[in-house]
Amino acid sequence: MTRRVPLRPAVSALPAYVPGARVPVGAAAFKLSSNENPYPPLASVQAAIIDAASDVNRYPDMFATELTEALAQHLTADLTPQALEDNGAVSAEQVVVGNGSVAVLAHILEAVVDAGDEVVYPWRSFEAYPIVVSVAGGTGVPVPLAAHGRLDLQAMAAAVTDRTRVVLVCTPNNPTGAALTQTELLDFLRTVPTDVLVVVDEAYLEFVRSDDPVDGTAALAAHPNVVVLRTFSKAYGLAGLRVGYAVARPRLATGIRSASTPFGVSHLAQRAALASLEAKDELLARVDTIVTERARLADGLRDQGWDLPESQANFVWMELGQRTAERAAEAAAAGVIVRPFAGEGIRVSVGEHEATDIFLRVAAGWR
After folding, report:
1. How much is the pLDDT for 137?
2. N or C, fewer C-beta in 10 Å, the chain?
C-alpha cells in the first residue's frame, strides 16, 4: 500500500482564503471586490518600475535598506512635535519590509508564537488572520464584533489569558470599515499585559477622516509591546507588487527580520515604493478623491434606506444575510463585481464614478 505524505493537521484544517473575484476575460465590468486603488500607478512610479526592470537578473537588496531608511524618515515626519521630543525619531532599524503586509504579519507571528500559544483577533475581520495564526502553530481566539461592525475592545481584553501571545487590532476593520479612535486604542493598550504583543493593522489608515484617528506610531512610542503594520497596496496603488512593512521597537524588529523570507521584496517593488513615497502628496490627493467617492456611495445607499457601518476605509459593508450570494450575482450581472461573505453580507470597494452609479442602481432595486 502506498503511503501519502501527511500534512500538518493545522494546515489540513485551514479555511480557504477567498480572493476578490476577477473580471472575466472579455467581460465589461468594474472590479469592486478586492479593495484595490482604482487608479494606475503615477507616471513617475511607472518610470521607476521600467527603469528597475533592467536589473531583475540580480537579487534585490535583501533588507530593502534604502526603502527602510526612507520609511523611517517619512514616519518621523508624521510625528507630532511632542512625540518627536518625547521619543525621538523613528529609526530604520525599527522598520521591517516584506512581501505584502500579510507576509509581514506571518513573520511577526513566526517570531513570537509557539505551538499552542493564543492569538486574539476580532471576527469578522481580515480573513487571513485565522490562516496565518494556524500556520504559525498558534490557537486563534476570535472575538465577535460589537454593533455597527466595530471592534469590541472590552471583549478582546477579556479574552486575553496567560496563554495569549498576540492580539490583532484591525483598524479600520476589514470588511466592515469601522475604525477605532486613538483614545480607544490607548485605553485598550493599558489593559493588555506588557508581554503580549499588540499588532495594530493599519492597512487603510490613509482613508481615515474621523476625529481622533488612530496613530499607530504614537501608540508604539508609548507602548513597547506594539507593532504597527502597514501596506503600499491600498492608498499607494501597488497591490500587484506586494510591499508591506512593520514598525516595532528595535529588538522586536530584529526578531521579525530574522524570520522574514530572504529577498522577499523584489527590486521592482522596492523602487516603486520609493518612487511612491517621493510622490506621496500626489498620491494622497488621489486618496482624497476616493474618500469623496466613498461618501457618495455611502450617502446614496443610506438615502435608499440601508443601515451601514461608518466606513473609514476604501469600501463599504452591507449586511444581507442569507441573500448575500444572490445579491452578489445580481451585481455582477449588472456590471459590478463585489465581494460576498456567505450568509453575512457584501463588501463593496470604492471604484470609478461610473461603478458607483451602477451599484447604486442595483442596490436600489434590492429595496
Report:
1. 94
2. N
What is the torsional sign of CA 5, 10, 13, 18? negative
Domain boundary assignment for the chain: 9-39+281-366, 44-279
Q: What are phi and psi of 321, to 5 degrees?
A: 60, -135
Query: How far is the C-alpha of 203 from the C-alpha of 288, rounded, in Å?
Result: 16
**What CATH architecture is 44-279?**
3-Layer(aba) Sandwich (3.40)
Q: Residue 199: helix, strand or coil by DSSP?
A: strand
Residue 151, Cβ neighbours under 10 Å: how many? 27
Residue pair 133/140 in contact by the 8 Å Cβ criterion: yes
User: CA 228, CA 114: separation in Å to the nearest integer?
Assistant: 21
Q: Which helix (H) or strand (E) holds 337?
A: strand 336-337
Q: Which CATH class is domain 9-39+281-366?
A: alpha beta
Give which of 126, 34, 37 is closest to 337, Cα–Cα. Answer: 34
> In this predicted model, what pLDDT tens digit does every residue of 282-311 receive, in sequence order?
999 999 999 999 999 999 999 999 999 999
Which residue ranges in the chain fall short of pLDDT 50? 25-26
204: three-class secondary structure by DSSP: coil
CB 55 within 8 A of CB 259: no
Spell out the residues 6+ positions from residue 318 whose beta carbon is closer than 8 angstroms to its own. 301, 306, 308, 345, 346, 347, 348, 363
Contacts of 361 (CB under 8 A, 6+ apart): 334
Per-residue confidence (pLDDT) for residue 25, from 0 to 100: 46
- Say how far residue 225 (Cα) sits from the centre of its chain: 20
What is the four-CA torsion angle of 200, 247, 255, 108, rounded to 10 degrees?
A: 30
E-strand stretches of 20-114: 30-31, 95-98
* Backbone φ and ψ of 141, nearest 5°: -125, 85
Please choose, from the candidates 239, 271, 230, 228, the residue with its C-alpha nearest in 3D space to the C-alpha of residue 65.
271
Measuring CA to CA, how many Å separate 129 from each of 89, 98, 142, 281, 319?
31, 17, 9, 31, 21
The Cα 120–Cα 64 span in angstroms is 31
- Please provide the size of the chain in residues: 367
